Fold these 2 entries.
Entry 1:
Amino acid sequence: QVQLVESGGGLVKPGGSLRLSCTTSGFTFTDYYMAWIRLAPGQGLEWLSYISGSGGTIYYADSVKGRFTVSRESGKNSLFLHMNSLRAEDTAVYFCARDKDNYFDSWGQGTLVTVSS
Amino acid sequence: QSMLTQPPSVSGAPGQRVTISCTGTNSNLGAGYGVHWYQHVPGTAPKLLIYGNDNRPSGVPDRFSGFKSGTSASLAITGLQAEDEADYYCQSYDRGLSGVLFGGGTKLTVL
C-alpha cells in the first residue's frame, strides 16, 4: 500500500535552516507530482509547493518562495523540503502528499517544525 | 480574489445530517476547477473524502457526498457518527495564485 513518512522536523531558531524528508513506498514515485502542505497552530491547511515526477516543474506558494526549495531523489523514492530563513510563523506540522491532478490522495502523518529562540 | 470560505464550525447529533459549505470565487470554483474535500483528525494524516466535486475514493462510506455549482460547493454527511468528529477542508486550484488553495477548515462536533 501507499506509504509516506516525513522526518527531519524539530526546534530551530529564527533565521535558521532545516531539511525535511519524505520517504515513500508502494507506488511508482516518478509517476506522480508530490507536494508539501503545512498546518500551523490554530490555522488551516496551507499548500506550500509541488514538484513534477521528473523534478522539472516546480511551483511555490508566495509565502515560502525564495526561502524554501523542494527537490526529489527518484533512486531513494524520496521528497525533500529545504527551509531557510525560518520565521516564527513557519511553526507548523509539515505534511508530504501525493498529488493526483491537483488533489492529494495520500498523505503522511506529518513532522513538527518549531521556530523559536 | 483567491479564497475558499468555510464556516468555522458545525455540529449535529448522531444519526443526523450535516452540511459544510465552501464558497469560492471566479478564480477557483467559478473558473471550473474541481473541489476536493479532506477529513483531518488532529495527530493523524489527512484523508481524501471527495475528489472532483462528487467522487468518493474507494473505502469512503457513501454517507459522505459532495456537490458543486458555480462558485459554491458543499459536503454532506448523513447518519452522523461519533467517529466523524474531525476538521474538514475543501480545496481547489486557483488560477490567480497559480497554485492550490485550501479553505480555512470546519470543525465538526458530534453532540
Entry 2:
Amino acid sequence: GAGVSQSPSNKVTEKGKDVELRCDPISGHTALYWYRQSLGQGLEFLIYFQGNSAPDKSGLPSDRFSAERTGGSVSTLTIQRTQQEDSAVYLCASSPSSGRGGRQETQYFGPGTRLLVL
Amino acid sequence: AQSVTQLDSHVSVSEGTPVLLRCNYSSSYSPSLFWYVQHPNKGLQLLLKYTSAATLVKGINGFEAEFKKSETSFHLTKPSAHMSDAAEYFCVVTGGGRRALTFGSGTRLQVQP
C-alpha cells in the first residue's frame, strides 16, 4: 500500500514568512510523529499525535512551531515567522498505534520536506 | 532519560568485506532499539528492531544486530558489504513509555569497489 507522503518536497521561503508542511500518514495508522533533520542538530523529535489524545509537544523548539492533525489523519506543521535556523528537512512518520502494553511499534517515515529559509 | 552514541561518524569498507557499525545506548528503562538506513535523497527505512525478544536480531539486506545489555551496545553487522549498502545509518532508542525516537548522530558507510 501507499507509504507516508509529505508535501511539498522542497520549500524555499524568505525569513519572516510563515510556512505549512503537510503529512499524509499510512491509512489506518493512529500515531503520527514529526521530526527535524538538520546539519547542526541531527535528527530530533518535534511533536507526536495519538488518536484523540492531547499531542506530545515536548520537542517543539519554540512557540513559532505548531501542528495539528485533522480527523485523526492528515497533519500540518506550521512554522511562523521563519528564521534561517529553521532550515532543515522535516520528516513525518506514522505507526499503527502508540504501542500499548509497552510494545514499541515501528515508525514508517515519509520522504521529508526540505525547507530553506533565505 | 535515554540517549544513543554512534561511535564512528564515517566507516569505509571494501566491497565483499564485513561491516561493523557501533552503537552504545543509555536508558533508564528496558529499551527498544532500532537501526534505520537513509540513502541519499531518500526517506528513512527500518533495517531491524530489538524489543526484548531474541538478543540477536536479523534485519533486511543481510544486516543483523546483537543486543548486549552488559555492554549497553547494539552494534550493526553484515558479513559482506555490497555497493548498494553505501548510505547513512542511524541507531535509535526509545522506551519507558516514551514513543518518540531518540536518534544517534549517524554513521556514513562508504563501500569501495
